[in-house]
Write a structure and sequence with these properties.
Elements lengths: L6 E5 L3 E4 L7 H9 L4 E4 L10 H18 L5 E7 L6 H9 L4 E4 L19 H10 L3 E4 L12 H16 L5 E4 L4 H9 L7 E5 L1 H5 L23 H11 L6 E3 L8 H4 L14 H11 L6 H12 L8 E10 L4 E3 L2 E3 L7 E6 L1
Parallel strand pairs: 2-3, 3-4, 4-5, 5-6, 6-7, 7-8, 8-9
Antiparallel strand pairs: 1-10, 10-13, 11-12
Amino acid sequence: MSNSPLHIELIQPDDWHLHIRDGEVMKDVLADTAQQFARAIIMPNLKPPVTTADLAKAYRTRIESNLKSLGISSFTPLMTLYLTDNTSADEVHKAKAEGIVAFKLYPAGATTNSDAGVSDIKRCYKVLEAMQSVGMPLLVHGEVTTAQIDIFDREAVFIDTVLEPLRKDFPGLKIVFEHITTKQAAHYVRDAATPSNTLAATITPQHLLMNRNAIFSGGIRPHHYCLPVLKREEHRVALLEAATSGNPRFFLGTDSAPHAKGDKETACGCAGCYSAFNALGLYAEAFESVGKLDKLEGFASFFGPDFYSLPRNTKKITLAKQAQKIPAELPLGNDTIVPLRAGETIAWSLI
């Protein structure tokens, strides 16, 4: 668009990659998320991780209890299981029967609470065969964790050493390459010679709006530190091009990851950006920056449910070109959290 509209009406989006944690903090996170999104893929990297259908059912019950206490009846959590070296094919069939929508692959040690993750993907081949047979997607944290590989190269190396061999061995397995951060990943997903319903990628607002300079602007900026880490400007540009292209392989996944302020602002700060409070405004800003607001609805509202073979939402929401000051801090259980762009003013607001 040559001129940005003052209002954007969208079918209500979903968040296809979300952390809501557990316990006291969950209610605050759910309140922020549910004011924007109708559904969300709930990440399973709790302590201990959600590794079985029974654990996922119990987690869903806790989520629903918190939603009820908040008076929210219009938000649906979509549950996932944490893949481990010991996951069984029987668990895949049980998960499918219980309405669990996907398994999550964390390479061991890749990110927050990933120590129980997969040490070698070949240990999981019988599980992946079962997933392929029942149409259960695999959600991939796409980084290698070998110490000698530079942290800025780990996604690109993962494509060559893990993802490409995996896709050759399981051509019918539905895979979401989550929170992609590099030009290599964007081009790999774009150009893959495979049906569009077997490979997709989610992209976060921080990776569309910031490059790695943001981590060091005027000093260490711990609230801009996430994993996979922000990359060079050429990668941000490639991600923005992919997100705004109208290609149905790319859709919204915030990877919003709540950590208390003190856990971020410490000698060894946690990885994760908290965007649940204002995610849609941030995505609108990114799309507007390249004159592609007309592509936002597909990315945010259509391509995700289509990939997961779920119905599109019908309710509509409206974003207005109305300045919004982001609070410096927000409540998080008994602590506080610093949201992405804290203390700044963004141009778009949900009305």
